[in-house]
Amino acid sequence: MKKLLDVMAALRDPDGGCPWDVKQTLKSIIPYTLEEAYEVADAIEQDDMAALKSELGDLLFQVVFYAQIAQEQGEFAFSDVVDGISEKLIRRHPHVFADAQYSDEAVLNEEWEKAKAAERDQESSVEKASILNGVAMALPALKRAQKLQKRAARAGFDWPEIEPVFAKIEEEIQELREAMQQTDKALVHEEMGDVLFSCVNLSRHLGVDSEESLRSCNQKFERRFSYIEETLKTKQQSFDSRSLAQLEQLWQDAKQAGK
Fold first, then answer.
1. Is residue 53 in some structural domain?
2. How high is the pLDDT of residue 116?
């Protein structure tokens, strides 16, 4: 770590450092951090351990970059980041680092959430305190929706059974249809969001991570679409030369091939 921290300090040195690194700010490197996080996820999805090793290094560099800028501003150093996460993990795992015992994983998760809520209360002023505090705006929309719903559910704002969740999706779809008939683009935009939000709620009730589920679906779509492309290429045909019904048949063939 000392080697990496020294490299980062040299890159940020106004006298002889890298001009690009020197001019960066906390805000300017946010897009790169998000990109690196997704590249880590992609390496894991591809089961590419060599790529994962490299991408984890890139992601770690982002953490060091933020810490270096903060240190230059007199806010905190990398060692403070390490101390903070270490203390937090110890505090949130009393069953490992203290004498606490939990009967099952559900109780453990409940205590974990209570610990996080207590920390949020300490960090927020009375005026700003909210159950929804701390759900980052920069999260992917599906992930953020699920976190918001989870927070609300802990306060009792949730259906205890799954059937009303299905009913809510059907209700939102009907409202979307009505908005489409009014040809009101702003309303359609809003109602489409309601449909997606309701689907995320169903995903949460099913114990499925909506972001991961959609990512897997995207990959499945790519595989099946590539199958169609390869089939048409082998037959020296194009999409335009096939009817929608014929393309649908190829899609069904792709599904069978995937099984």
1. yes
2. 66
